[in-house]
3-phosphoshikimate 1-carboxyvinyltransferase (Flaviramulus aquimarinus), 414 residues
Amino acid sequence: MNITLHKSQIVNRKSKVTITGSKSESNRLLLLQALYPDLKLENVSNSDDSNLMANALNTQADIVDIHHAGTAMRFLTAYFSIQEGRTVTLTGSKRMKERPIKILVEALQDLGAEIEYEDHEGFPPIKIKGKKLTKNKVSLKANVSSQYISALLLIASTLENGLELSLEGEITSVPYINMTLSLLDEIGVETSFENNTITIKPTTNPDSYRDKQPATFTVESDWSSASYYFSIAALSDIGTEITLTSYKENSLQGDSALVDIYKHFGVSTVFKDNALTLKKDTLRLNPLSLDLKNAPDIAQTIAVTCFALGISCDLTGLHTLKIKETDRLVALKTEIEKLGGDVNITDKSLHLAASNSINELVSIATYNDHRMAMAFAPLALKTSIIIEDAMVVSKSYPTFWDDLKSIGFEITSN
Ligand SMILES: O=C(O)C1=C[C@@H](OP(=O)(O)O)[C@@H](O)[C@H](O)C1
Ligand SMILES: C=C(OP(=O)(O)O)C(=O)O
């Protein structure tokens, strides 16, 4: 379904939106709950990816299809590797079959896991024969995706001898690794991350973690989803306020860097009672240079904010974007150029030139990528725009379009 976003304004200058739980935290905690069933969760994400993760952990089927959910694919590869006596084929969408998994599979094989490629070496689908893993030392390349590392860390405390992981090369998306370690700490698993080595102690006595475990873990709302409101605030009139719930000032999510990043666009943020209020308080139109290797999921949001404001930007640290839901560098260049922008990309960076006009009623292709749809939506504050295959947003944020309507966006189905 394509939709048209008619040139809109935020009608209510003090709007409020409740955002679902973090997809990243939810997917980790769902897996930990499958390993440690006493763990209770609140505000779990209602995203497709988290639903797929929960269903995959609950099914006894021989074939598990996780569609477009990359994090679920990587985490479940590790999970099924330790399900003794069970054989599972893990597969996904056409794009998932192009998203590399070899670094994780090799690390698990080094630990003793039995995994075979069903189609192309290095890519899903994979057939996993669950086994008890007793080896506890492995090294892997850390510059391609942090999801491989988190996957190993999440099962590590249930391995007989724990795990000592040596990370090779520059480590990418570090906040996601720290999120995994923090969640393990919270449920009482002993972890350490020194130099390039992560150590996880085994939990031989379940009571030792049960004592320390919080009775209920409340997932913080999703910061990547919040990014679209930071962009909306940046493109709104001075004085506009948007309040988002439920957030923590000390977040585990690296995308909370938005608070500092959006100051550049004149957006200030105030935390109060688990709510985050964004306020556009100054007009700032300076060029932006930013390394996003710690926050790759907000690259599309920031590139579109800059384009909408007509300012130039140099975004670096984008080497993981080519293997996400689509090649996000190519997708951004193609779609921003349809709107009249001028974008240069390499394999790890994007340069957007300053501009002073935006083409009207352009139809934005979304390439099965929720973030393409959501990142371009704020442009409706400047011009009418069409978003193709709009329901793609359900991968991480199913109520996105309803929430935009609630704050004044005028949206019709085509
Ligand atoms: O661990 C996670 O929850 C994620 C890690 C990141 O992936 P990479 O480490 O592959 O960049 C991020 O892009 C993804 O959306 C979620
Ligand atoms: C990259 C993303 O997700 P995944 O890798 O889990 O498919 C994302 O949500 O932006």
Notes: Residues 67 and 287 are 38 Å apart (CA to CA). The first helix runs from residue 23 to 35.
